[in-house]
Write a structure and sequence with these properties.
Two copies of one chain form a homodimer. By secondary structure, chain A is of the alpha/beta class. Chain A is 39% helix and 10% strand. In chain A, helix 7 packs parallel to helix 15.
């Protein structure tokens, strides 16, 4: 806040100018961004540069390459169904041992370079351990209804203030949005601020965290990971838990794109459901080896780029690694993985945010799909980071719209709505009543059946 | 974020300098603050100045006067017990009608100036309405355990980004802190971003919000209001609900200071418990009349300053109004009000934050009192506002310490702790186990009995 010493007034005027986004200014700004991007922000960095970079990468996949991804996602979404002309053979097999050899004597390596990376001591009997615990603790049921599992939504952000000061405000709106959805649906929240394993910094940090939470909370049946740049835009949609009773891992994606095309955006790891069981621990162990920072992650990145369709050259990311793992090990994992595309467990913002008015006009909350997306995920916006892959103005404007679109479904319970999708202000939509319990809210979200179940005896 | 156009590097250097707080710079900064305070920030303001002022005031009580309050709180806390030499007679009676008369034709008044302000249509049979609803909806029990009520914690902040950019980061830490306490204790959270009634802006905005939530959620037995600048510092302390079975309104405070001294800091309204019942609706109706912005609030402020001990001259605030209401109407309200001082339902930060190391050395979480405070409330810090009543550096440093002090109790569940109360970084406190369910966390917070009750059949 101290830059106000240089005069808030000037800064504010510029911010206002920017908000109303004169072309001239945007050009200037983008020029600066591009220039600095070219020179390398490192030169301008603080001592925490590394940590910042980690932090920046943590909250979106593949910072440098969203545009490609975007184009592809738009193209492939439609094409996915009949698309199956894949070059199935032409990819390398990831030889972890070789890379670990190269790693020997690496000064920046903390752990024994000969030991392959591990998320923790091997556990093979988790299902038994967990079942025993659940038997001994009947008051911590893993199902809170006949078919409704106990769910823990896990998200998080850096413990440091955002590089981009406005970023923290959007993180705040994002968690308020999740608090609302989770209160309505009887889901608990864990917000993470800690980097549990420095080696797994960046978009890999969720793996040690998820393992830790599964092992600490046997009462949790499903863990729902959600990136901090994803917001709930359908407060009424309840996940069809019944549908996943025979599966352990649910992501938004398409079988053809993953197993046939090996397309690096055939699935998205920004919002997924993972069952608390031995299979999931095994999956995490198989997912993690490409994660360790430095040579391993860099080498793995080359393997992934070589193996996957459409993937640009950059270090290994968790999403590409998952596509690779499934594409190369379908027989081991495929049976228990559910690639969901009947509703937006993850919904790419670029193809959704301009259609909110259309949704409002033609549809209603509770659909969760292309008519009213459950989740709008601001892939590549990184409001907390220094540079996103899209113009900051567009990202922030659209994040506000997404937030308000979702928030209107919360406010309607109490008789209010935003003056517009662009406005923070609210207005009444009905008069106060002296018999408030007689009027039911339109969406029935005040006391939804799926929540009632939660507390039934 | 656009001020980076002037060069992030320079801003950052200054920020670093500020963090390490050279006396020179602090002096310069405070001079600027004081100077600008004198000139009046309005001159530097944006069109949203008014809204900002409202916003700033919303999240602390009595912006201009904390220092007095602080001194008094420290003095009186000790003296409270035997202190009862009050000037019980010498105060005016608040003539709302007279003020409303003056208000007639006031251009800025939206509602009928002849009608006294009301939070909503009069409701006299809420207990019957609510009982009927609870009977019809057995799956939404108002008690989730034999003596454990269903509780909704309500907090919030402005829908606008903070004036002081770092403020949003502290709001984020503050809600993460509340999410943790509430998950551990089986409490639901409502985070408010909306100004439901423009007339009740500022520290009065919580009244219409609270009424709305009580009437919308008959299943909620107790509503827990907590300011955004208050943090949980004892994650293990469960509120002694049994103790309040015959009371409807619980605040931190002292009977002597309120009823005898009429001291304006005899209680604190930054963290309180309110039962969902007719009595509480009546209390809100009796509490609200001094709230309407403009002449009413200004005139009421004079009445309060004249009536209450130690209150400086400024517009009516919700806390002073409550002291006044109780002091002048003990027979009407006193019986159902519990002024709690055996633990810190609200704890003034100034007398706590420097003693965390002492607490850690001598005591343990779960006490909630002067040995390990349940809540540390950063009265007067307003990290989100332009100017607080304390040096920004001290506030932020201490808010970080309070957050980490509380967060260590969360991290210990998972085998981690902050490297120090001043550090965001975490370190392991035990090795990973292959039989994680065998080790119980020290504080038993992973599966606490008071939470188990919640889901028992």
């Amino acid at each position: 806040m101290l830059e106000r010493c240089f005069g808030v007034r000037r800064v504010r005027q510029i911010q206002r100018a920017a908000r109303h986004g004169t072309v001239t200014f945007l050009c200037l700004f983008m020029t600066v961004v591009v220039l600095r991007g070219t020179i390398g922000a490192g030169k301008f960095g603080t001592p925490e540069q590394d940590f910042n970079d980690i932090r920046e990468r943590f909250y979106s996949h593949n910072r440098r390459v969203e545009p490609h991804r975007v184009l592809e996602e738009v193209e492939t979404t439609a094409a996915a169904a009949q698309n199956d002309n894949a070059d199935s053979n032409n990819y390398a097999t990831f030889d972890i041992s070789k890379i670990l050899k190269d790693e020997e004597g690496g000064a920046d390596e903390k752990r024994d370079p000969n030991a392959p990376y591990s998320l923790g001591p091997k556990i093979s009997d988790w299902d038994e351990q967990r079942a025993g615990w659940l038997k001994q603790n009947p008051n911590f049921r893993n199902f809170v209804g006949p078919t409704k599992p106990r769910v823990l939504l896990v998200t998080g952000s850096s413990p440091k203030p955002c590089e981009n000061p406005v970023g923290d405000h959007y993180l705040l709106k994002s968690i308020k949005n999740k608090i609302d959805y989770c209160r309505i649906h009887g889901i608990e929240i864990f917000y993470n601020f800690a980097l549990l394993d420095a080696e797994m910094a960046g978009f890999w940090a969720k793996l040690p965290l998820i393992r830790k939470l599964l092992l600490s909370h046997p009462e949790v049946e499903f863990l729902w990971w959600m990136d901090s740049d994803a917001m709930f835009t359908d407060m009424a949609f309840e996940v069809p838990w019944e549908r996943y009773k025979d599966h352990n891992f649910v992501m938004h994606g398409w079988n053809e794109m993953v197993y046939d095309d090996k397309n690096w955006i055939g699935l998205n790891t920004g919002s997924f459901l993972l069952r608390n069981c031995q299979w999931s621990l095994d999956l995490l162990d198989a997912w993690a080896p490409m994660g360790p920072k430095g040579k391993i992650r860099d080498e793995a990145g080359k393997v992934l780029t070589n193996a996957l369709k459409g993937r640009p050259v950059f270090e290994a990311d968790d999403q590409s690694a998952m596509v690779y793992l499934l594409a190369t090990g379908r027989e081991r994992w495929g049976e228990k993985v559910y690639l969901e595309n009947h509703y937006y467990l993850h919904g790419y913002w670029g193809i959704l945010v301009d259609r909110y008015e259309e949704f409002i006009e033609n549809y209603h909350p509770g659909l969760g799909d292309h008519r009213w997306p459950l989740v709008t995920h601001f892939v590549g916006c990184k409001p907390c980071g220094k540079f996103g892959d899209y113009p900051v103005e567009r990202c922030l404007k659209q994040m506000d719209r997404a937030y308000n679109f979702g928030d209107n479904q919360v406010l309607q319970m109490y008789g209010f709505t935003h003056k517009s999708l662009a406005s923070r202000r609210v207005k009444r939509i009905r008069n106060e009543s002296s018999t408030p319990l007689e009027l039911k809210d339109e969406l029935g979200l005040l006391h939804p059946p799926f929540k009632a179940i939660k507390l039934s005896s």
